[in-house]
Design a protein that fits this description.
This protein is an alpha+beta fold and about 280 residues long. The protein is about 20% helix and about 30% strand. The longest helix is centred in the middle third of the chain and has 12 residues.
Length: about 280
């Protein structure tokens, strides 16, 4: 019996970020596009035509209300102004104002901010530092397109992770160069060696934080580095990005998946940026 080529599949709905599962046995990550309740397994669509059309509608990812514009990658304006998850202290956790009594949603903070966090080193386009809730490992790294990652410190709260990250930022970037990440020529790093070097340099600052938050609050981890692989047939030599707001119809041959990007032969598109957009995807 010959294997038949799967017919094109169509999914319609409001986008949420792609679900990315680590590959089995060192294989490439598994990508699932999510449009409303519908799902499209993307790995099987590599090398095939894909089209994505935005209807012009956007629904808030939190409340579902229609919104003309998306704020903070998927929220309506009222939610953007009201929700703790849209506050600036989420991006800059060291500015947490919970103890000033001004947290937008103290109960949400209890569940999300007052939880163990991890400070990690990753390599997506070179060495970077990052923070995430313990439960978001390795999802966070896959979302960023990191090819290597290493948890370095465990801390008790999001705010503490912000203070630790501030220290690391004196020595290392907290940004990914997404164009470089999508070119796929990131040189491998010795993350344990980088960790040891940085911990030695930042010893004084970490000691100060332990004095403030308690000796057990900020713990050095002894973990092995993680390697992450992505399903990519071909990386672009020049990275051109699609913008649905300007051109609501995108099509091309799907050449790869990395971070929250689709790599098409016609350009790349960051699907996370279009969270809440109502699309029809045919692949
Ligand atoms: Zn809303």
């Amino acid at each position: 019996m010959t294997e038949t080529i799967a017919a094109a599949v169509e999914v319609t709905g409001h986008l949420t970020k792609m679900a990315i599962a680590p590959g089995q046995g060192g294989g490439p990550a598994r990508y699932t596009l999510r449009a409303g309740e519908q799902r499209l397994e993307l790995n099987a669509r590599l090398g095939r035509p894909l089209s994505l059309v935005w209807s012009g509608a956007i629904a808030c990812t939190h409340c579902g209300r229609a919104t003309k514009k998306s704020f903070a990658q998927g929220y309506c304006y009222p939610c953007f102004k009201r929700l703790a998850q849209c506050d600036t202290c989420i991006v800059k956790p060291e500015t947490c104002h919970f103890f000033a009594g001004t947290c937008r949603e103290p109960e949400w903070a209890e569940r999300h901010c007052f939880q163990p966090h991890v400070v990690y080193l990753a390599n997506a386009s070179g060495l970077k530092v990052g923070i995430t809730r313990g439960t978001q490992v390795p999802t966070r790294w896959l979302d960023q397109g990191a090819v290597q990652a290493l948890p370095v410190l465990a801390v008790e709260t999001r705010q503490q992770s912000g203070f630790v990250e501030m220290l690391f930022k004196e020595e290392v970037s907290d940004r990914t160069n997404w164009r470089a990440m999508l070119k796929g020529d990131t040189a491998a790093l010795d993350l344990p060696a980088e960790r040891d070097r940085l911990l030695a340099r930042l010893e004084g600052g970490l000691a100060n934080l332990r004095e403030r938050f308690g000796a057990d609050a900020i713990r050095v981890l002894d973990e092995a580095p993680v390697a992450l692989d992505y399903p990519v047939l071909e990386y672009p030599t020049k990275v051109v990005s699609h913008n649905l707001d300007k051109t609501p119809e995108v099509s091309g041959t799907l050449l790869g998946l990395k971070g929250q990007y689709l790599i098409l032969d016609s350009g790349v598109i960051n699907l996370r940026k279009y969270t809440g957009y109502e699309v029809k995807v045919v692949a």
